[in-house]
Amino acid sequence: MAQKQQTLSDIEYGNRRVRTQRDVLLEKMNELLPWQKWIEEIRPHYYTGTRGRRPRNLETMLRMYLVKYWFGCSDEGIEDAIYDSYALRSFLKVDFLKEQVPDATTLGRFRHMLVKNGLDQTIHDEIEQILKENNLALRRGSFTEPKLHKI
């Protein structure tokens, strides 16, 4: 698999001296969660693009949905936050040279599809179980505060 070429933003961000709580949270969630399993569970219910807009990358949509939940933002709020935050953009694996962040309407449709098929609760329950197995808990707060802590 070809490695992504670093941009100047990647290099600049990589040279910072402090890792934020946001960085720590997103890195740990990226490591712990069963992304491929969830993608395969969602795929049969996901928009195929036979009419209308081209479907967005399923993993990107799942990651955006979870970030919205973890940070307690509206659909519009998380769309804006991703444009503003290198950490969030990296977690979503969005490369602005190739694509833009999915818009709030697309995220809303994705969220409704998860709810309609009961996948939202399944995913949230699995996250809680994974965190518990790793002696972690997610403390939700304002956008800058959600963090993992030992329990």
Task: Give an overview in words.
The protein has 151 residues and is mainly alpha-helical. It has one domain (30-43, 56-150). 57% of the residues lie in helices and 5% in strands. The chain contains 8 helices and 2 strands, in the order H-H-H-H-H-H-H-H-E-E. Helix 4 packs across helix 5, helix 4 (58-71) packs across helix 7 and helix 5 (75-84) packs across helix 7 (104-116). The protein is globular and about 45 Å long. The N and C termini lie far apart (38 Å).
Which helices and strands appear, and what pairs or packs with what?
Blueprint: H1 8-14, H2 21-32, H3 35-42, H4 58-71, H5 75-84, H6 86-92, H7 104-116, H8 119-133, E1 136-139, E2 147-150
Antiparallel strand pairs: 1-2
Helix pairs in contact: 4-5, 4-7, 5-6, 5-7
